[in-house]
Prior knowledge:
The chain is of the alpha/beta class.
Amino acid sequence: xxxxxxNKQVExxxxxxxxxxxxxxxxxxxxVEMAEEKKCxxxxxxxxxxxxxxxxxxxxxxxxxxxxxxxxxxxxIAASMATVIMLPADKRRMNDDSFLxxxxxxxxxxxxxxxxxxxxxxxxxxxxxxxxxxxxISGKTIDExxxxxxxxxxxxxxxxxxLEARLIDEIIV
Length: 173
């Protein structure tokens, strides 16, 4: 992930996978600190197929806990956990040829039945958190969010569908 102060704002290029080595919370923290120091907006150019739920939650919290103005442009795709890190933005925009993809969290686990049950418990908790966040932004109930977007399928949306679902605020033509 790259970021720099340019055009009177901190511009973040978040293209890649959400994990501690690519699109990471530590980089987002530094970008937010720069925006706070310069008293300017944080602009995020987002293109990601998603990644780690834990790292994504850290990024979500970092973005939620700052007072700087946050702007997100989805320039290619925001899939899976990338849809969560866009949510705290004050304004979410999407290119007219970009896509969102929402689904419930997944995991790979190896072990006995106790390990599998614990993994299922963690995934259920993660799904609950994601559902709550999507509901807050879209105005839908958690039950509606679960039926529409966290239903065991990959749920794709183009820009018009994302706008109608109230997950973005504007389409960039």
